[in-house]
Predict the structure.
Amino acid sequence: MVPQIQTKVVIIGAGLTGLVTAHYLLKRGISVKIIEKNNRPGGVIQTVKEGGFTMEAGPNTGVVSQPEIMELFDDLCGDCAIEIANPEAKKRLIWKNGKWHPLPSGLIQAIKTPLFSFGDKISILGEPFRKKGTNPDETIADLVLRRMGRSYLNYAVDPFISGIYAGDPTRLVTRFALPKLYQLEQKYGSFIGGAMKKGSEPKDERTKRATKEVFSAKGGLQNLIKALVKSIGEENILLNCSRVVVSPDHGFYDIDFLKNGNPVRLTSDKVISTTGGKEVEALFPFVDQQQLAAIGQLEYAKIVQVALGYQEWKGIDINAFGGLIPSKENRKILGVLFPSSFFTERAPKGGALLSVFLGGIKNGDYYSYTDTEIQSLVEEEIGEMLQIKGIKADIIRIFRYQYAIPQYYKSTEQRLQAIDYIRNNYPGLILAGNISDGIGMGDRIRQGRNIADSIIKE
Ligand SMILES: Cc1cc2nc3c(=O)[nH]c(=O)nc-3n(C[C@H](O)[C@H](O)[C@H](O)COP(=O)(O)OP(=O)(O)OC[C@H]3O[C@@H](n4cnc5c(N)ncnc54)[C@H](O)[C@@H]3O)c2cc1C
């Protein structure tokens, strides 16, 4: 006899989205079970502590872009605390012609910087007077060329897009990939004027909690996951689940899977999937396959993240957030973060922790390189860029992601339509996760909260 468990909601995937959704549902007394294929919760979030270093295998930092982030930490208070990055190490560096240059943060710096051409610096003065775009599918590159100029695209926006999407600005569509920027132009007609007007608009207390500050959890993001797991209850998270298949059953859903190799069936009113786009076709064989194909086609950037720990730092001054390398510079790495400069207790005193990123949509082949090849490539690049040639890191850890960051291209329109179609035509079935609503941790927290709120309202 297959064990059968009845619950109100089943969530597939115990990453940040699934855990946040479950946390808010359970808080309101709605029964939830999470099904996870891995042997641990957290999805791509994982903190590794070794040799005095606190290394993130997945995301290192988030931006406090939504009030929901602060509210979640308030809610988990006592079990986990937010850590805001040290503002003294907020400088972003850009690599150009063999040197790091700070990304300008004020007018004087913007005039002096060698990152942008003289012509573009003059022409940016006309940005507030340029007409707003009319093509809703305009790419980020086209938008920036139209409003700001090529050197801004090459030495500000391209590296910024590498840092967020590991993506290509000539393919990412602004409306989907950077909706706030798109709205800035659409609503106010200009980036510069819009940012100024928006900054002076009155904000309510809740909106003020979105600050653009950089956050993690004290002691690493794993502590956020631990606190969520504690709130949800380990008994509600089923790990090591394979071959998950959902089928409709007289107004309910049956969710069949193997747990540690043994068959189990859950029955629920609602099913929320938070897996990536590649999983949905197999999970929901009864759903219109054409709709699922529109989701399954989502392209992902592959990422290799390399954590390097030095007991004693002998390179250049790294009192900054990190450095990004524009595609035009043709280097092998996308960028490097300096977590020990902006968060506490990430490296032993006097030491340093670096987090180097490789791959992305333009250089996905690095994903298949051996550890030895990756190590020597990173040591060579970092050795030159941070002036530590010949000095070996005391610890090196390599983390690979085949489906790291979804790319919000023009096809996002069809994918969003398919997600809506499924929600409207299969009552109780919700396809969530970073296939929609943004890729950052803040977006994931907000989506989980919104889904929970909509179910609670019902
Ligand atoms: C290397 C890397 C760096 C990043 N850096 C940043 C950053 O600096 N800042 C930021 O804000 N964001 C960053 N992100 C993005 C952010 O981490 C993610 O958007 C977010 O953590 C995703 O959470 P999620 O729950 O939606 O998905 P996931 O974390 O992918 O969780 C999905 C879960 O579903 C499970 N699953 C999948 N298929 C099945 C199945 N068939 N059955 C059961 N379970 C299944 C998976 O095992 C996983 O646990 C980064 C992501 C990566 C990969």
About this structure: The mean pLDDT is 96.
